[in-house]
């Protein structure tokens, strides 16, 4: 009983702290509905990585060109120009996703910084650390605190700038503003616009920054994926547009040059498939380096004289680029690049290790509530894990006939051994709530057939959808589909949900709550693990 009370108290804190709900669902609860839950809503190396979100995003219309572009100047732009060529080394990461501890022992931020230092890295010397964005959403050590710990870690590592990734919006705009105020480095996006065409500087985001590196004025420009509209909660970005990358660069590069930038770099949250044609299109802008993100790729290559890199994901690897810049000729005269695995360091940086340890203590103090025990665990890509989550929704909300969620919402697996509240947050780190969408049978089949989804309560039989109780879906009957507010708001392209039911019912139930409740109800331990109950609910 004490354990359940403690978990409920923690869940209440999460709801108060920031349940994210779109404006759409407003209908009163149907008769018999459950009381809303309490949980807060030179080489090219392919990476073996978690798949990024798979979606087809709309291409927004470019906003009007603003004037008087602001610049985030993080160092004086009046330092003496070096007498001769200067070699600058860039360390590039992306899609860190809160993994300050590392996905395996010794792969975290403290080891990465030690490896950089062994290669000569000194943030006060001719070195730059850049991020391609998606820094915060991930394991509980970061997600529970909405990225605050990751900002402190990256401050300690000496990052000079970071692109705004789609997941920087996950915790809402107030949290984004809080993180930008805490960061010693600017968050950059040249193609992010308010819907009125203005730059959203009130949220602490600038299109570019100029950093003095040993007397060379280095302009760093940010880019954000145009897929952001369907890969974070659309309610959080309803006031923004994401204009074309090339248009943004052609607008911002002259402004950065006018401010004094001599050497231009781009930190972008976009995939290799977008970087390559972009490099071909802007070869005339004299950009030396373009970094990517979003697709968790690991590569380094040159296209049209521009070095393109992406550093992998989750601090497991990084890219390095060494540029020799000649101020007299205003040109890069030599370049080298490589991708590097983040091997465990013999002596991880003690300052970063201390920061990580303190955030681990804070996380454990709040979240290390044991809910149950699994003998084998469930890997992230496990079909059973992905069926388990929506299946528990139907148990918690039996008014619904079918439950549907997106694969991109799963960010970790359940480990073998004791299962804690922190583990659940690691699996489902986003702040979503469940929405009851009323559909006709025809509409339900259309939704179930769209894209890639994890579904409970229905399946295909001989090319037709039917309910798991064996009943065929009647095209003219009425059904209730339980899904997340992320998908209801149009995430991953599910714009038809709100079109079919503009007044869907927001249950207020955090999408993690049913899984937490179900695990607790099994009363599992080492002597009676959870595994057989999982198999009984969703199959072997």
Describe the structure.
With 540 residues, the chain is an alpha/beta fold. The protein is built from 16 helices and 25 strands. Helix 4 packs antiparallel against helix 9 (350-367). It is globular and about 80 Å long. Mean pLDDT is 86; it is low at 1-68.
Features:
alpha/beta, 7-stranded mixed beta sheet, 16 helices, 28% helix
Relative helix content: 25-40%
Shape: globular
Radius of gyration of CA atoms, rounded to a whole number: 24 Å
End-to-end gap: 31 Å
Which strand-content bin applies to the residues? Answer: 15-25%
Q: Which regions have little confidence, pLDDT < 50, spanning 5+ residues?
A: 1-68
**Number of H/I helices:** 16
Major sheet: arrangement of strands: 1-8-9-11-12-14-13
Largest sheet: 7 strands, mixed
- Tally of DSSP β-strands: 25
Secondary-structure-based class equals alpha/beta
Mean pLDDT: 86
Write a brief caption for the model.
This protein is of the alpha/beta class. It has 16 helices and 25 strands. Strand 11, helix 8 (272-281) and strand 12 (289-291) form a beta-alpha-beta unit.
Give the secondary structure arrangement, pairings included.
Elements: H1 2-18, E1 72-73, E2 86-93, H2 109-118, E3 127-131, H3 140-143, H4 148-157, E4 161-163, H5 173-182, E5 187-188, E6 192-194, E7 205-206, E8 208-213, E9 216-224, H6 228-231, E10 240-242, H7 245-258, E11 263-269, H8 272-281, E12 289-291, E13 298-303, E14 306-311, E15 317-326, E16 331-341, H9 350-367, E17 370-374, H10 383-396, E18 402-405, E19 417-420, H11 421-427, E20 433-440, H12 441-448, E21 454-456, E22 458-461, E23 464-467, E24 478-484, H13 485-488, H14 496-500, E25 505-510, H15 513-521, H16 531-538
Parallel strand pairs: 1-8, 2-3, 3-4, 4-5, 5-7, 9-11, 11-12, 12-14, 18-24
Antiparallel strand pairs: 2-15, 6-10, 8-9, 13-14, 15-16, 17-19, 18-21, 20-24, 20-25, 22-23
Helix pairs in contact: 2-9, 4-9, 10-15, 10-16
């Amino acid at each position: 009983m004490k354990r359940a009370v403690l978990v409920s108290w923690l869940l209440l804190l999460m709801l108060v702290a920031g349940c994210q709900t779109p404006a759409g669902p407003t209908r009163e609860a149907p008769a018999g509905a459950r009381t809303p839950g309490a949980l807060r809503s030179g080489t090219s190396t392919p990476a073996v990585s978690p798949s990024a979100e798979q979606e087809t995003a709309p291409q927004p219309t470019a906003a009007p060109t603003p004037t008087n572009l602001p610049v985030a100047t993080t160092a004086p732009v009046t330092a003496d120009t070096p007498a001769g060529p200067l070699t600058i080394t860039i360390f590039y990461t992306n899609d860190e996703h809160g993994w300050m501890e590392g996905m395996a022992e010794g792969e975290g931020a403290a080891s990465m910084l030690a490896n950089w230092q062994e290669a000569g890295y000194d943030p006060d010397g001719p070195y730059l650390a850049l991020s391609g964005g998606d820094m915060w959403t991930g394991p509980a050590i970061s997600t529970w605190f909405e990225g605050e710990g990751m900002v402190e870690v990256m401050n300690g590592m000496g990052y000079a700038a970071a692109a705004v990734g789609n997941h920087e919006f996950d915790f809402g705009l107030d949290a984004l503003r809080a993180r930008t105020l805490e960061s010693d480095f600017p968050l950059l996006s040249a193609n992010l616009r308010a819907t009125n065409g203005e730059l959203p500087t009130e949220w602490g985001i600038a299109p570019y920054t100029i950093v003095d590196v040993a007397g060379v004025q280095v302009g760093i420009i940010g880019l954000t994926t145009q897929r952001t509209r369907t890969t974070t909660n659309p309610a959080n970005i309803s006031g923004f547009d994401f204009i074309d990358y090339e248009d943004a660069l052609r607008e911002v590069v002259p402004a950065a040059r006018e401010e004094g930038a001599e050497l231009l770099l781009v930190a972008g949250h976009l995939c290799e498939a977008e970087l390559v044609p972009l490099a071909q299109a802007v070869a005339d802008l004299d950009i030396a380096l373009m970094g990517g993100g979003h697709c968790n790729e690991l590569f380094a290559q040159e296209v049209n004289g521009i070095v393109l890199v992406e550093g992998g994901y989750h601090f497991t690897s990084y890219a390095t680029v060494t540029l020799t810049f000649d101020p007299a000729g205003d040109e890069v005269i030599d370049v080298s690049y490589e991708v590097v695995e983040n091997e465990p360091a013999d002596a991880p940086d003690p300052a970063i290790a201390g920061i990580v340890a303190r955030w681990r203590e804070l996380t454990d103090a709040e979240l290390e509530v044991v809910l149950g025990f699994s003998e084998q665990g469930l890997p992230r890509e496990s079909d059973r894990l992905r069926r388990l989550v929506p299946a528990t929704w139907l148990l918690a909300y039996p008014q619904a006939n079918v439950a549907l969620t997106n694969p991109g919402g799963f960010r970790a697996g359940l480990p073998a051994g004791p299962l804690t509240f922190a583990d659940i947050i690691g699996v489902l780190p986003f702040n979503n709530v469940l929405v009851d969408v009323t559909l006709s049978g025809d509409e339900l089949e259309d939704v179930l057939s769209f894209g890639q989804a994890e579904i409970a309560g229905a399946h295909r039989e001989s090319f037709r959808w039917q309910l798991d109780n064996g009943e065929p879906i009647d095209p003219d009957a009425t059904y209730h589909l339980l899904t997340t507010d992320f998908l209801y708001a149009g995430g991953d392209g599910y714009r038809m949900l709100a079109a079919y039911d503009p007044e869907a019912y927001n249950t207020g139930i955090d999408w993690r709550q049913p899984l937490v409740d179900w695990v607790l109800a099994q009363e599992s331990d080492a002597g009676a693990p959870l595994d057989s109950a999982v198999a009984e609910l969703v199959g072997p």
